[in-house]
Amino acid sequence: MFENADALMLARIQFAFTVSFHFIFPAFSIGLASYLAVLEGLWLKTGKQVYQDLFKYWLKIFAIAFAMGVVSGIVMSYQFGTNWSVFSDKAGPVIGPLMAYEVLTAFFLEAGFLGVMLFGMNRVGKGLHFTATLMVAVGTFISAFWILSVNSWMQTPVGFVEGANGQFLPEASWFEIVFNPSFPYRLVHTVIAAYLTTAFVVGGVGAWHLLKDSANQHARKMFSMAMWMAALVAPVQIFAGDMHGLNTLEHQPAKVMAMEGHYESHPDGAPLYLFGIPNDEEQRLDYAFGIPKLSSLILKHELDAPLDGLDTIADEEQPPVFPVFWAFRVMVGIGFLMLGIGAWSLLARLRGKLYDWRWLHRAAIAMGPSGFVAVIAGWITTEVGRQPWTIYGVLRTADSASPLDAPAVATSLIAFVIVYFAVFGVGTWYILRLMSQSPHTGEKGVKRTEKGPVRTAGITPGPTQNPGRDPDVLPAGKEEATDGR
């Protein structure tokens, strides 16, 4: 059935599908790790039980999201070797070390302290446990640092030379490669997006439980914290996004032209199109509706500033406009909705009605998944807008793929779709089930198994007074002092 299919397009669809699934979990776990660190820090500072309860409540959810993020991320490296071997061969000397640094400095840090964070609250001192939580939070940020550095270098490649064998080799300074022109903007914009994603999930869960019981102190606390985040950080994100857009205009003008729907150049000020149907064949925006000269004001800070359009770009160099145009509007629209929820919550807080305005709570529930939609829309804007290049201006996507037949790519694509929806669907369902349960005093946190480690090296446990239990597990009745069960 795939004999006449395009192997390149199937490979792109497969990567888009898997990375979309993967992206939502780090976007959540990056923000949630920092939220857990804040909760534990507030508990240690104030001694209030509500912070410890919320820490244990969200720790269970973090454990599952983190695990699914790790598992889904492994597939990305797999595809570099199967579907994109030419890209891996050419760009490997540059991106390979950066991705290795991510494993060495971030993943090992997270993995090293994750067990202490999940199971060690009653087994180590409070200071050491808080340090472990901080290290996991820092590790998630460092992981984002390196991965976004790789992606940013592919968007704005600098600091390399092409070797005799066609590979891209570091030229002089790794600093120039790591801190490439788009990296600082992309890092700030993406990390803030992760924090807002988590804030609206937490706010949605808090609002859900407030609707069921407005006196629930745990729901009140998480909802209040989330709304502070929305009110204070959403405006910062809009500013960061604007700065990122100006950087993109400087280095990837064709992407901005697609985002704005500017098929034609505007020498006397370009309109900001709010709606339209991009028509690549006719090179025009059908049913266009916009505000005159506002795009020039935003991008050039002058009403009459000229802006070039896609008519200045060769057809084969243009990105597909439709997905970029609409993904950008979805992302920006959600950003302003977040800003509106934050402002609404400030008004409610000033009037002493933060926990009483039911429509605010309903809106917060509706906005709960909005961060995930926004980050996926942002990813589509960034990655599809880079086309037809894998490494912008240097290596085309068509020249990056492995020499595979379409049926081979299609087979793995079908397998991924089935496995991903089964595995991650169940994981997501379980997370939603945990969220549906109201946080309460005396949260148990992550449960410990009753069984000890499996021994496979010929070591036989010695006799115990209770042969029905593993000797490494505390006798019955002692668990209460160690893990709160």
Automatic annotation (TrEMBL):
Key words, A-Z:
Cell membrane, Electron transport, Heme, Iron, Membrane, Metal-binding, Transmembrane, Transmembrane helix, Transport
Locate the region Disordered: 440-485
Composition bias type Basic and acidic residues, residue spans: 441-453, 469-485
- Topological relation to the membrane, as annotated: Multi-pass membrane protein
Transmembrane segments in this chain: where? 15-36, 57-78, 98-120, 127-148, 187-211, 223-240, 326-347, 359-380, 409-432
Name a Pfam family for this protein.
Cyt_bd_oxida_I
**Molecular functions (GO terms):** electron transfer activity; heme binding; metal ion binding; oxidoreductase activity, acting on diphenols and related substances as donors, oxygen as acceptor
**Which top-rank group of organisms is this from?**
Bacteria
Where located? Cell inner membrane; Cell membrane
- One GO cellular component term: plasma membrane
Q: Name one GO biological process term.
A: aerobic electron transport chain
Spell out the family assignment given in the record's similarity comment. Belongs to the cytochrome ubiquinol oxidase subunit 1 family.
Q: What is this protein called?
A: Cytochrome ubiquinol oxidase subunit I
| Native species | Qipengyuania gaetbuli
